[in-house]
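Standup, Tuesday
Yesterday: got the pipeline producing structure tokens again.
Today: sanity-check two examples.
Blockers: none.

Example 1:
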Amino acid sequence: MGDADRLDVAVSGGSMGGLFTGLALRYDGHAVDVFERSTGELESRGGGIVAQPRMLDFLDAHGIAAPAEITTTTSRRRYLDRNDGVEREYADRMSFTSWDAVYRQLRDAFPDDRYRMGKRTVDADSAGRTATLAFDDGSTARADLAVVAEGGRSSTRDRLLPGVEPEYAGYVAWRGVTPESAVPAAVNERFEDVFTFYQGPHDLVLGYLIPGPDGGTAAGERRLNWVWYDDVRDRDERRLLTDEDGRRREFSVPPGKLRSDVESRLRADAEGLPATFADLVAATDEPFVQAIYDLTVPRMVFDRICLLGDAAFVARPHTAAGTAKAAADGIELGDALEGDVEAALDRWERERLEAGRRLVAEGRRMGENYMN
């Protein structure tokens, strides 16, 4: 095809970035197939997320989800001191949601017959005006455009950009999600309408309410999400990321898979936090850990193949924009694809490279400030 009136698009990766991209392109009139390596429903990628306006606007504009039905909100930001008192507090309106709540809405909006499970991409090639994805079952998909939305562990990015690797920041995020009903009432009240923090000498912990596993946002239906950024440079990072089965994880150990000695150390260390957060960690059944990385790429477009989301840039979670960045990449790609495809991809790449670099730099600045 010489123009972008209607493209056949193959998306490698069926998580947030892939679904936002697939839906944005479908709404712009393109034919999209999404190929996901998992064979069953995707597990939660980390619980709570900040619901950025661009993402919510997209969901609302296309009738995918009404923002009020999948978000919780706070009107104040509060910092606790070491003794669990209020160090400072100010007005600051924020919206939060959960990974599973958003994923469920996106997945329901995307046609089942165009979402292919059990398709792990092992190669990608572009020749002329055609891109081809090859899968581990021996099958292939040919399209006018291939979008790589495989996340931070993208094997396709590794082949397209050998030598481009995530850079470990030297600290981790311990994380957890627990039903508000499992938390003492006095603790739960500390998070009602409040985005709550504790800033230590070399760590930062925060918490907020998110929708429940079924999307419920009413009191009693929600969950508490907490994140503890912890400097672990005096510990063996490889050990922290080795799960209970002895499997070495690259980026995170999921809920229920922490080694018993690692979890015991976490719970013991958490007793030194302000009582609000100490009680919250104690009430969490399956905490997990995520190593903090930075990733930047020099290119996002390779003829008729493009990278987006965490396959291109990974910014530290302090920016509260990881999911929003993936969504924006896909939405902007849909907006850009008008007229000549190569010219459209060139414009999109220049704009998204700038946005990605800016976000990663901001994440580094914030992380250095918090951890030092």
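Example 2:
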Amino acid sequence: MSDKSKKVGALSARTWTSILLFGLIGQIAWVVENMYFSRFMQNEITKAPYATTLLVAFSAIFATLATLIGGALSDRTGKRKVFICWGYVVWGFTIAAFSLVPMQPSADKVLPMVILVVAMDCIMSVIGSISNDASYNTWITDVTNTANRARVDTILAVIPLFAMAIVFGGFDSMTNSSATVESWQKFFIIMGVMPTVGGVIGLFLMKDKEGIKPNKSNSFFNDFTYSLKPSTIKQNKMLYVCLSG
């Protein structure tokens, strides 16, 4: 490999640290959302199937819409860092807020608590989708190129396994069937501190790629619906085949 090729594919230590930091913390937060909110609902609010179904369904809907909106906002402002870093800060607070939910409610208060938990999960999913799914993944595309993107994507594909190992290995016992209210509260606070601290560190560590300019050539609605247009799908057939898979 020539020196020129090495230079093209090289990423600074600062960039690698940002990639790993936000990649790992983001996946830890998603482990909490994807697995532990459902356990929390079943163990501490109600075992009724409708509650978990609502939790999963509404979270998925809001996360999808938020990712589309976040992507459009990121492109229109020409900024990634602000959405990522401040998004992670707020993301952590939305996770920690679950420690304040009244647990083991009486029968007449179950439905209000179900609605509260579903609403809080939707808020958490919106913040996470804008900061991680939309902005962080776009930033990855910005700072990588064809010489190094495969290597970065491979590492990012492995990171979720490390995130699961960290959460399961270090904190799962705080949420099992015998877990107390206090242990659940500690769990949510610890899991919430991680994204918040990561976001604060990122404010000093992360950098947007130079030269990115705001793109307001189209309306916000057009940017929001761009990936859903038949013409876009037709022009990128194989991409949508992969996405469908």
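Quick observation on example 2: The chain has ten helices and no strands. The radius of gyration is 20 Å.
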